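Report of the visiting student (M.T.), summer placement. My assignment was to run the structure pipeline on a short list of targets and document each run. The first record concerns Ribonuclease R.
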Amino acid sequence: MEGRKPSDPQPPPDTLPDLSSPSRAGGLPDRETLRRFVTEATGRVGKREIARAFGLGPEHKAALRDMLRELALDGALVPAGARRFRASAAMPEATVVQVTGTDPDGDPIARPVMWEGDGPAPVIFMHPEQKGRPALAPGERVVARLKRVGPGRYEGRTLRRLTDAPGRVVGLFRATPADPAAAPRRVQEAGRIVPADRRSKAEWIVPAGETMGAEHDEIVVAEPLPMAGHGLKPVRIVERLGPMGDARSVSLLAIHTHAIPHQFPADALAEAERARGVSAEGREDLRDVPLITIDGADARDFDDAVYAEPWSGPEGTGFRLIVAIADVAHYVRPGSTLDSEARRRGNSVYFPDRVVPMLPEALSNGWCSLRPGEDRGCLFVEIHIDAEGRKLRHRFGRGIMRSAARLTYDEVQAIADGQQDSPLPEGMMATLFDAWRALSTARAQRGTLELDVPERVVRLDETGRITAIEPRIRHDSHRLIEDFMVLANVAAAEELERRRRPCLYRIHAPPSPERAEAMRDNLSAMGFAVPPVGALHARDLAGVLARAAEGDAPTLVSETILRAQSQAEYSPDNIGHFGLALSSYAHFTSPIRRYADLMVHRALIGMGTHPPDAMPAADAAKLEEIGAQVSTAERRAILAERETTERYVAAWLADQVGTEFTGHVSGVTRFGVFVTLTQTGASGLVPVSTLPDDVWTHDDKTHTLRGRDSGLVLRLGQPVTVRLAEATPVTGGLLFTLTDPPPVPARRARGQRPR
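After the run finished, the structure tokens were exported:
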């Protein structure tokens, strides 16, 4: 008897619709009946469930397979794992869409603003705007009438524009050389703009008189002009950001591409300038406690300080910890201009050459920065832990503190290693690390998911020239601060739950069923067993990573697990944090640079209008909206920071075209493989057109690209040697060619049984 495979679980009987009518049993259903059956089922169904519901026998196997394939090709069903399907989510006839790029002809491509279906959102190919109206540019939102043209594909026509200002095009201006012999054009062309966004596949024409004096190879911002006909779309340059060769123009490019607010309103600046120090009245005095800040060498805003001392009590021995956080809520009051601007920004954005702060510098680097030797207001949490790092109790308060020292991660590590003298009271640094080791023990027992994703650092000199791109070094001092902050964040979430106050949680959902199943299949093929979705825990994946570290494919295992993870976000509905293996978690420790933390501070301070810096009832009622807003801002910042690093890397490598590099396959698609370089962490594409002449087949389940005739296989995590073929700083794009293709698997003789 054939047993059920672990990757093909049997759904519970009550998840399938009742189709027990005799008229439906014993014969192949029609397409609509089959589609409705899959739609009414909660979850995913496969051929086995369909055969059982309709009473099908082996003689129907081929016909059922063909019908399922046709429904999938038509888009009525969506593949959902191995041999399983689910109904596709239909788009309404008219909906709000956002332009994300252009096709090679310059026509806009969009995505629905709201998408609740599983899998990627459908692609919408927008018709060109009517003659005399400006073309749609990336970032614009419109109400569009949709028509389905294939699986996950729609055509759209603009019904109404929703954005107040015209869309913006950010890119590189290329002046068009004058050619007297050329035929006259309908539009006298002064140059073209190469978009900085890789999703925009077409250039934009800049007519004569619309260049704003821009020079060749200058980064510019433009807005669409009314169209005169078909073909590439015209734009007018409205802002010049600087030459592409200037490294400091790169961050400006990202700021404008993603419409990141970077100039404060005059009223917000005035409010920040009026700020003054806090009084000790009504606050707990912590000025005699030697709290210290530990940050990066280039940090200018110090919003958290830590302290630890040995402790013993009725519960045993352990440590008394204090984590003090800048009292931003005292200065940024609900309803103020500062508050609305901070909410609009959502967070600070960090680039190699600048920071776009959430708060004006008078606060972020001034009164809200815990500078050594200066009195500062704070919110603090006092926490007692036992020798195993388990939290016994905590207490929150509002205080006034005076930082004893500002130390860097490198300095703290040097002190811990005995390579540098400590400016702290004797034994305090050793106690901090002893407390951290206890917290590390608790974290290991909890089973958190620690994916060691390399981070690149771009080094610039005083003129903005790139001097190095190197991996960021992580010390135990980094982990010490991380674990102290996690503990404080847990205490904040638990305190708000205890007081029954609204909380903007930091949540991280487990992998979706589709991603988890694909991850299980891949890890199983590599010899690692993972529990099914409902029983999956972060400690299971942590165990896989630990075992993989001892083998020969740790990168492949780590990237397989990483690809399955959901994205963390902010929400008032607590579902826990899967990666940290915590049931309640909130961000409390960085209110200078994250608006979500400021909301948690206000909730801890109180509710209503008294005190005036507490959380207003109106904000408590719309926490879900605020959570979605700051989550979107966070994703925008992450994307802008990553793209900026990619552009710096492309500029760094632009004069190394033809050089060979070692790396590994970090992504596999039907159009080629992505390779991440070992030395710089830069990623680029090896197009399938540059691979050996063959018929290449992409297997999304196994993350492989296989040559039919050669037998050559490229798979995720595979080490490769590549040659840099092209580097495009304006988009950050890199193109490689394989110089040393992996060995072809030996072909077995005809009739030989496979292993």
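The radius of gyration is 29 Å. Residues 1-25, 747-755 have pLDDT under 50 and may be disordered. I thank the supervising group for their guidance throughout the placement.
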